[in-house]
Design a protein that fits this description.
Number of strands: 3
Number of helices: 6
CATH superfamily of the largest domain: rRNA adenine dimethylase, C-terminal domain
Number of domains: 2
Largest sheet: 3 strands, antiparallel
CATH class of the largest domain: Mainly Alpha
Radius of gyration: 17 Å
Strand order of the largest sheet: 1-3-2
Length: 141
């Protein structure tokens, strides 16, 4: 798939370390996004106020990580990003409506420091966190 989107949106989808988002995790589960080129605003008439980027997404034959319940997985990821700029322990507790102690326990089992922020977790770490949540009894979706 090749599309043109606002430059910042394309960069968000590609999700470099420390700039991941719900959008980048959602796209990267199903395909590999790459920015092919940038298109400056002055290439359009009338010129918009933002630059654009050409984004190529090559889809995977199977999702990049094994998560057997994608709805539940994305409930977890959404919860992690629900409180922007908060540490994971606080984000998960708030986003899932669980106690902070429960969130900290699951993060510990998953090997993820509770001081980290959602945007620093890789797709693989989100999948590991999901597996631990499932083993701990799952989520109410």
């Amino acid at each position: 798939m090749i599309l043109m989107v606002q430059k910042e949106v394309a960069e968000d989808i590609v999700g470099r370390p420390d700039r991941r988002s719900l959008l980048s995790i959602s796209v990267q589960l199903y395909g590999q996004p790459v920015i092919v080129d940038y298109v400056p605003a002055e290439c359009f008439y009338p010129a918009p106020e933002v630059d654009s980027a050409i984004l190529k997404i090559t889809s995977y034959p199977q999702p990049a990580v094994n998560v057997d319940d994608r709805k539940g997985f994305f409930t977890l990821v959404r919860a992690g990003f629900s409180a922007s700029r908060k540490q994971m322990g606080n984000s998960l507790a708030q986003g899932l409506g669980i106690s902070k102690d429960e969130a900290l326990a699951v993060l510990a089992v998953a090997g993820i420091l509770p001081q980290r922020r959602s945007e620093t977790l890789t797709l693989e770490e989100w999948a590991q966190l999901w597996r631990v949540f499932q083993q701990a009894g799952g989520l109410e979706c």
